[in-house]
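During the second year of the project, the team shifted from modelling isolated chains to modelling whole assemblies. The rationale, set out in the original proposal, was that interfaces cannot be judged from single-chain predictions alone. As a representative example for this report, we include one of the complexes processed in the last quarter. Its constituent sequences, exactly as entered into the pipeline, are reproduced here:
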Amino acid sequence: MKRRSTLADIAAAAGVSLMTVSRAINSKPGVSDELRQSILALVEEMGYRPNQIARGLATHQTNSVGLIVPDNTNPFFAQIARGVEDGAYAREYSVFLVNTVENPTRELDALGSLWEKEVDGLIWCSARVALEELEFQLRRFPAVVLLNRELENPLSHVMTLNVHDVRGARMAVSHLLGQGCRHIAYLNGPLHSLSAQRRLQGYQSALTEAGLSVDPLLEQCCLPDTASGYDATLVLLNRRPDVDAILAFNDLVAVGAMQACQALGRSVPETVRIIGFDDIPLATIIEPQLTTLHVDLQHIGELAMQALLDIMEGVACPSAMLIEPELFVRDSA
Amino acid sequence: MKRRSTLADIAAAAGVSLMTVSRAINSKPGVSDELRQSILALVEEMGYRPNQIARGLATHQTNSVGLIVPDNTNPFFAQIARGVEDGAYAREYSVFLVNTVENPTRELDALGSLWEKEVDGLIWCSARVALEELEFQLRRFPAVVLLNRELENPLSHVMTLNVHDVRGARMAVSHLLGQGCRHIAYLNGPLHSLSAQRRLQGYQSALTEAGLSVDPLLEQCCLPDTASGYDATLVLLNRRPDVDAILAFNDLVAVGAMQACQALGRSVPETVRIIGFDDIPLATIIEPQLTTLHVDLQHIGELAMQALLDIMEGVACPSAMLIEPELFVRDSA
DNA sequence: TTGTACGCGTTATCAT
DNA sequence: ATGATAACGCGTACAA
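Output from the structure prediction step:
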């Protein structure tokens, strides 16, 4: 690996000063056209590329952002990450990806590490930290987009981006009620998850408004994966065999629920209707295809990145965005 | 966002020189114990964290690596990325994630961008560039782990990490032959994919060795996703209705094949046996569960990261690693 | 239009 | 054990 050429090398080769080369490269005024051409030719020839570390030190801009997710393996976050990365590429930014693995220590480590690296901005999904810690961290970064978390007091350099979970859950329940279901259960996600709380709230309020009572026995918590959804459904259906519909925290849980129903000989959607959330690719792969609340996750990722760039550039930007999920009725409900 | 404190701030507060603080922080010798203690206390109090950009400029080490994948949304690469990130976290490295989206331009852009950022190392999956370009790029980085690509002439700072695709495909074909199948088709992946070529080779050689002829009509190309697998299977079964087994390039394709069979009323595994490759989570979610060649992708990611660190630290390291897939017999074959 | 001096925050080197 | 000084590669501010 031979030494990288620097501005000084180019300047020497071109017989001009450092600054002239710098200006030529950054297409700034103050360089005659022919000189610029010959410099750029040299740059090409010598394979020069600006050293972003040095540039970062001088300008306090690194052209990189951090993306914190619980687990990039989860299709939900994978899609978002893809959108973020696409958006970053379009604007010549690089993305540091970090998984928290639902581990508070690792989450704080990630924040510290990103801060040390002087990222220009941060997209932070499902922040699991206490409010005080959250505010401390937000203060440290120049720009932040918070996904899946809300903020009482808006900060000018922070935008929150949330799915309208309450409305989504209500749409699902309405649909089930319309199909004649009267014993609708809810497989909730982790209690500390804001989405889980909001979806629960939507579920309960829809039932109440329909004149049905909210029955704690119809609510069952589980981790947001297929295996947990399966187990939770067995528990649920054992406790309340009269259940005729299940709203699941997300699609993975819904699929687990579907498998459990099949294992118990309860056909879907004939005896139990199932609705998921998020519309991950799996939703259309399994049989019967999953009715679910569709959210364009990749687009959300791109939106988040664009908003982040807007904040960084001082462009006016809303303090919060709310994404409306859409009920995609397929075969499971 | 208030100004970050710097070494100078700490030094001033402690009434010592910059270097003493630097030494204390980096736990280098040359600082008395009590002084070190009091400095570290100040560091804590003032919330000081070293600026990695400045440090990077001074040391030419950034404590960050690049990870290039075709698409982080593909479970195959998502698992690998997760392993890489876990490994990086364990050693206090950060990971730049880049998607190439099978786009050569974007792949080159990614390499350029990572080089500008002075990453200490690179994990490069499924490099799609020509040999000459590959060698040029490899020369630019201090350390590289190449996944899914081989190298004629080993380089001391590069390691290749491949799955033994040939052996995997042969195991699959053997298994199918043992089940009595005699018209085994192969749904190949993209032609430019090295894995696809190797799996094809394993498929063909296993047939030949069993005394069966290789029939081009039994080979069908498709993109490595479910929809393409579905379409390709329709084409294939239309052309050769006598097919009694399908080996798919990967699990996504296999699932598409399974759906196509079901759509055509051909039961799996009774009339058509199907085997996939990679064993992504989906393999055990669908019904019937997929028989497939299992590879521990997350572990591969960790291995890649560890090897990369070894290269970077000058630790002796093999020039190539070959991972053996294992046939997991489930319900589809 | 072009060039010079300096600073960004840190580490390496050489003194003390 | 501690400190002064010079890099690292670039951009900003100002001078020519």
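The domain at 64-164+297-325 of chain B is CATH 3.40.50.2300 (Rossmann fold). The mean pLDDT of chain B is 96.
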